Amino acid sequence: HPEFFYRGPDGRPGNKMGDWSDVIDLDYSHPGLWDYLTETLVGWAKIVDGFRCDVASSVPLDFWCEARRQVETVRPDCIWLAESVHGAYVLGMRRTGAACATDTELYRAFDMTYDYDIWPFYEGFLKGDLSLRTYTDILNYQELTYPTGYIKARCLENHDTCRAASWFTSDRQLYHWLGFLYFQRGAAMLYSGMGLDVQRYLTACKTMKQTLPLGGGFWWVTASDSVVLGHYEGPEGRALGVFDLRGRGGEVAVDLPDGVYENRLGGQVTVSGGKLALGERPVVI
After folding, report:
1. Model pLDDT, residue 71
2. Which of 101, 114, 134, 282 is a plausible cystine mate for 130, CB 3.0–4.6 Å?
3. How many helices (H) and strands (E) does the chain have?
């Protein structure tokens, strides 16, 4: 079926992104291609729990919606994860006249999207180019942008980025970032052995994550140029997360009565004079 493949202006098989020299795009204008691909997905859905769809933004959204409808006939609980793309990629594709879906649009067909929409802000903060306030502002903006109860696939590194170890200067900083990762709305993704040295701590993170539902509200407050306070509030109760993202230590003011509190990530912490000491591990109360 040579007609299933996209052809460039020269008539030869190619792709819409010229620097992806190893990729030949598919031509979704052919209904027969849709049939072939959805039949394949339905076949695999009888075996697997879900699909991670590479560069899902550049495939017609109507195709994904139809594929999901057909897959649900054999696996209604199938998980759909979209590798959504950077905003700059969306703009670049649209400038060429090619369709490219935003994360907001992808939630029509997918359960989860990557957090590439804010990745430049994450890297910008780690490089020192952007303030922590700028980073937390964009996290808060996500809460205003996506459907209620949206799920993001959160990660600190992946196969297309620098290793997190190249950013973090200490184990202390790694612990605080991992706690921060698991506290955020969504599903935490770990890549290539990140958790090998911190397995016990990750178990605590996962347990804490399971106690935070997705239906309530999350918001972030910058306490200093190093510390962010994460808040969750819903019908089930409230949670406060304290994360020292530069690993500098010290104290931070918290809106809690003085006393001793159980840290969901292990041990106890004390609030004295309205302040909490920043330790080796983050705190979730």
Report:
1. 98
2. 134
3. 8, 13
How far is it, in rounded angstroms, from Cα 233 to Cα 238? 4
Q: How far apart are the first and last CA of the chain?
A: 58
Residues 141 and 103 sit within 8 Å (Cβ to Cβ): no
- Give the dihedral sign, CA 67/118/196/268: negative
Name which of 178, 185, 175, 174 is nearest 239 in CA terms.
185
Phi-psi region of 259 (alpha: psi -120 to 50; beta: other; left: phi over 0): left
Rounded distance between C-alpha atoms, residue 239 and residue 267, angstroms: 16
Token digits of residue 38: 């959805």
126-144 pLDDT, tens digit per residue, is: 999 999 999 999 999 999 9
- Dist CA 282 CA 179 (whole Å): 6
Alpha helices in 83-227 (DSSP H): 87-95, 103-106, 119-127, 132-145, 171-183, 199-210
Q: Compute the chain's Rg from CA coordinates.
A: 22
Which among 149, 136, 150, 132 has a CA at the least distance from the CA of 220? 136
Average pLDDT, rounded, for the chain: 91
H helices of 31-77, in order, are: 31-45, 61-71
pLDDT in tens, 232-283: 998 878 999 999 999 999 999 999 999 999 999 889 999 999 999 999 999 9
φ, ψ of residue 245 in degrees (nearest 5): -75, -15
Q: By three-state DSSP, how is residue 241 classified?
A: strand
Q: What is the distance between the alpha carbons of residues 103 and 86, in angstroms, rounded to a whole number?
A: 10
Tell me how far the alpha carbon of residue 163 is from its chain's centroid: 16
Whether the pLDDT of residue 197 is over 80: the answer is no
What DSSP state is assigned to residue 6?
-
Distance CA 201, CA 104 (A): 33
pLDDT at 201 over 70: yes
